């Protein structure tokens, strides 16, 4: 998983008080990918308060909420979801920018940018929302709002069971395996079930549009908004060759992970839903 590198933040700095210290970008770099997430969070909570200030219970609530989202992002990074890139906004930890590259199947070649909105109530009761930036012709995506229907899978959101990485993995997975009961876009659902050739034609057009729109961007001053530029050999050539070399070297050394096993007393393979 590729992520942008946010600003450094020193959790051992004793100069500040217990109040909120800004967005997730200030602590993300020092916490993601380490084994000391809880330890460093505790250090921040244990800072002595500045003179003349009083402790507010809401400060603890805001801090723990931010640490929860940091933990969720850490989980996303650790999952290494193929073809998925995501980063929290520089202005709000509740807004994430991402893009999904589709490498095979009906939507092969698609480049689908999206925005993930985390609700204020997170992580209790309500699942995040995911809206694509470019038109996506798919039974699970609203044709007008471009929002992915997550209610069918994450209707009863629980902090002990559900995580943001599952939402992102599901968003990627819908392009490889069309959900049988998806009816958010009724036209797409009808074509997929009864007029498959027309559906494939619409899906191909959707992919082509995503490729032509990849260099377009929203009007935003957010420093973490994902932007794409045209290929430049002098800038990107060396990286491209390194990636191709790595792909060749690891062609036969790849591995996949999942929940699967052989049923006891037989040779029948079994598997579990990866989202729960």
From TrEMBL:
Domain UBC core, first and last residues per copy: 64-212
UniProt-listed Pfam families: UQ_con (PF00179)
PROSITE patterns on file: UBC_2 (PS50127)
Superkingdom of source: Eukaryota
Protein name per UniProt: UBC core domain-containing protein
Species for this entry: Nezara viridula
């Amino acid at each position: 998983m590729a992520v942008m590198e946010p600003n450094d933040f020193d959790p051992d700095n004793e100069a500040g008080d217990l109040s909120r210290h800004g967005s997730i970008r200030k602590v993300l770099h020092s916490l993601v990918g380490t084994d000391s997430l809880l330890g460093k969070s505790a250090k921040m909570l244990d800072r002595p308060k500045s003179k003349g200030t009083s402790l507010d219970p809401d400060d603890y609530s805001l801090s723990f909420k931010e640490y929860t989202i940091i933990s969720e992002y850490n989980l996303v990074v650790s999952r290494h979801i193929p073809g998925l890139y995501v980063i929290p906004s520089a202005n709000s930890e509740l807004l994430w920018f991402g893009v999904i590259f589709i490498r095979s199947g009906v939507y092969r070649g698609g480049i689908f940018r999206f925005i993930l909105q985390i609700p204020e109530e997170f992580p209790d009761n309500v699942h995040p929302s995911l809206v694509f930036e470019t038109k996506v012709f798919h039974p699970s995506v609203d044709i007008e709002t471009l929002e992915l229907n997550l209610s069918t899978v994450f209707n009863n959101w629980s902090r002990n069971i559900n995580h943001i990485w599952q939402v992102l993995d599901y968003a990627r997975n819908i392009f490889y395996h069309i959900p049988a009961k998806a009816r958010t876009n009724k036209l797409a659902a009808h074509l997929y079930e009864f007029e498959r050739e027309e559906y494939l034609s619409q899906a191909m057009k959707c992919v082509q549009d995503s490729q032509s729109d990849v260099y377009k961007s929203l009007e935003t001053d957010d420093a973490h908004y994902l932007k794409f530029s045209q290929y430049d050999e002098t800038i990107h050539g060396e990286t491209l060759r390194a990636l191709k070399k790595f792909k060749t070297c690891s062609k036969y050394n790849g591995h996949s992970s999942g929940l699967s096993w052989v049923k006891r007393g037989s040779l029948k393979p079994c598997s579990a839903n990866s989202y729960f």
